Amino acid sequence: MADGLRRLVGAESGRVLQEKLESWYRDYEINSCDQNLNRCCEIIELNSKIQGQLFTILNETSQEGGHYAGVETIKTRLLPWLGTCFSCASSGRLFETNLSLTQDSIERERQLRELANSQSFQLQELQEELTSTRLQLNHVQQDLKTSRAQEKDALWKLERLNDYEQQIQILRDEISILDAQKSVLQSRLARSRSPSPRRVENRSPSPPCLRSCSPGRARRTNASRRACLIARFGDIYAEERLDAETLLRTYISDMEMVQRIIYIAAVESFHAAKMAYRQFKIRVRETLSLGHSGPESLEDTVLDYIVRHEDLYDVQASVNEVIRSMNVNPKISFPPEIDFIVISTLIRELCRMAFSMQTLSPPLDIAFGIDGELFSETKYHRSFDSDFTAALVAYHVWPALMENDIVVVKGEAVTKRGALWSCRSRSRSRSRSRSRSTSPLVSHRLPRSRSPTPVRSGSPSKWAY
After folding, report:
1. Which of 98, 216, 254, 279 could form an S-S bond across to 304 if both were Cys, CB 3.0 to 4.6 Å?
2. What tens digit of pLDDT does each residue of 318-342 get?
3. 378 pLDDT higher than 70
């Protein structure tokens, strides 16, 4: 008997039964009918197991006392209890109790379903209200954009008004000059004996000639602006370029790759700035042509306006365009955790300078360069680590500044023997390592070959830096 009782105590069945009862009591209200019935059946099964073990212990205990030991206790205690448990009346009450509990559970489930339906309806109403609020927010944002557009339009009209006032003053000066010339011509005609229409026509200056002889502000300041921009080109090479080079060396150990990145950034910056200048000039020409009537030509008026309002140039858009172009360039690579935005300061200054260079007459541009080309002493300086006996350019460090076909400022290039072969093999290895095809990029950037620079128009490929 002691072993059976020890096993019963060690199994802690009574404590488990009590914990299950307490857990069922806590979760009874939130459980479904089936869940509560399953809990009850589980507890009944556990209780039956405990009762079975107790009856086994009872049998072993009665045997230990002898043949007639414990008979009186069994008759007075066990048999009356067994008869009470299995009576029909008790069974009927138990069934009624179970039925009542089942009905209560069904009622609770119905109430829970109604509550869930109500919450679902409220959630739908909240979603509709949220949708309505979003629509109102979109309307407010649209009104705000309209207001900002109207404000910009008002500022644009104010600037045009200032331009008109300046043009009116210029016209008054031109009228005064024309009146004086008219008086001189009339006096000459009066003194002439036989004035012929041909002679009068030859002597009298026509208004178009006068207008063409009065250059605009941009043309008057062209020489000084050109000198400042050339000096700025040298400053960027000596300062911002070296700063960007030092910054890139913290991420890239390959010095050649660092110099290639900076050179391509310069080339892409000039390209983006030139495209932005063309679009900006088209917009300005379309706007000023509506009311142009000044002494200057429309092109001079447009150029004067661009020179005075270079701050309207969206340089950040050009910077973003340059970074996008560099991200898909197969000739350079960058650590995946870093972006080319780290050299955005250099790109921004290059874009601003290149944009201003397009306002010159003639504009300044950079020379077109390609890896493996014949080294030109008139365009480039050799880098200190170059092979001075080599005739081919391995890669470019800095572009040359050109005015039409004339070199204004020399660039910098690295020359090495076997540069053409090494460039081709390196290009193939980088193309394989980048795991991307370059053919879609070429087709996407084909308009670049339409650059007005004579040297670039004959380039066979966009990626030939």
Report:
1. 216
2. 999 999 999 999 889 888 877 899 9
3. yes
CA 266, CA 353: separation in Å to the nearest integer? 11
**349: number of CA atoms within 13 Å, CB side?**
16
CB atoms within 10 A of CB 251: 12
Which has the closest alpha carbon to 133: 125, 118, 146?
125
**pLDDT of res. 241:** 96
What angle is formed at CA 150 by the lines to CA 146 and CA 155, rounded to 5 degrees? 150
**Structure tokens belonging to residue 128:** 């509709």
Taking the mean position of all CA atoms in its chain, how far away is CA 96? 71
- For the chain, the distance separating the N- and C-terminal CA atoms, rounded to the nearest angstrom, is 98
Would you tell me how many other CB atoms lie within 10 Å of the CB of residue 83? 10
In terms of Cβ atoms closer than 10 Å to its own Cβ (0-12, 13-18, 19+), residue 289 is exposed
Q: How far apart are CA 405 and CA 365, in angstroms?
A: 10
- B/e letters for 101-120, b = 16+ CB within 10 Å, e = fewer, are eeeebeebeeeeeeeeeeee
In terms of Cα–Cα distance, which of 228, 225, 312, 301 is closest to 276?
312
Residue 196's identity, in one-letter code, is S
CB 67 within 8 A of CB 143: no
Q: Could you write out the DSSP letters of every residue in 123-134?
A: HHHHHHHHHHHH
* DSSP output for 365-402: EEPP--TTPBP-TTTEEEPTTS-TT--BEEEEEEPPEE
**Residue 359 half-sphere exposure toward CB, CA atoms < 13 A:** 31
The model's pTM is 0.48
Asked whether 170 and 294 are in contact (CB, 8 A), the reply is yes
Strand 380-382 relative to strand 411-415: parallel, antiparallel, unpaired?
Answer: parallel
CB 258 within 8 A of CB 249: yes
